[in-house]
Amino acid sequence: MRTPAPPGLEHAFAYGMTAGLLVLAYPVQPVWLIMGSLSAYSGLMELLQTFSPGRHPGLDGMLWSSAGAIFGGLLVTLLRSRMR
Questions:
Q1: Which of 6, 19, 3, 5 is nearest to 67 (CA)?
Q2: Does residue 1 sit within a domain?
Q3: CA-CA distance, 24 to 5, in Å (whole number)?
Q4: Which of 51, 71, 76, 78 measures 20 to 30 Å from 17, CA to CA?
């Protein structure tokens, strides 16, 4: 199911929310590890689209997803530090 939003924003939102939730769920894990893992995962998902009929891998999808993961992870870290 697609939303009216551009696909890049869908990627960024999904990975940003995932990163934010993971930062909250695993506070002892380094934030860079969560963001880096999600960025690597997004690259893997783009590569695997090669084997899915009707799908095409793209660097833009990985970049949007990585940007969302970084933004979400940093935003939650910033908000959490301000609440202390």
A1: 19
A2: no
A3: 26
A4: 51
